[in-house]
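ingest -> validate -> predict -> emit
validate: passed (alphabet ok, no gaps, 122 aa)
predict: started
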Amino acid sequence: MSEAREEMDLIDRIAEALPSEVRTAYYRELNYCRSLPDNDEVLRILRAMQFLTLLMREVPQRVADERQRLELLFRESVAGLTLTAERTEAYQRSIETDYANCPRKLRRDLARNASRERSMKT
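emit:
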């Protein structure tokens, strides 16, 4: 494909990203670019505009996709943490029930040992 044809496509690709009401004015302004030499600085700027146009088109969708991915990850993480908290609470209730059902002497001994361990740590 010739450079001139590539530049024509470049101009058209940028034009496609523009709102229809300004597209005609865009073509009118850039029509002279079709006759510029391949190494012209204006064409370099036009190529840079193509990259910016690409970014403006694709970045919002990529951000939206990433947001959905992060939202799913967040929901899964919250669900996992909720399940862990529920299981921890159930285990704690089980231990408290078991402790309450222990004979009084055993509870007294357990409390004494726990108190001794706390005093040794300080």
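The chain has a mean pLDDT of 84.
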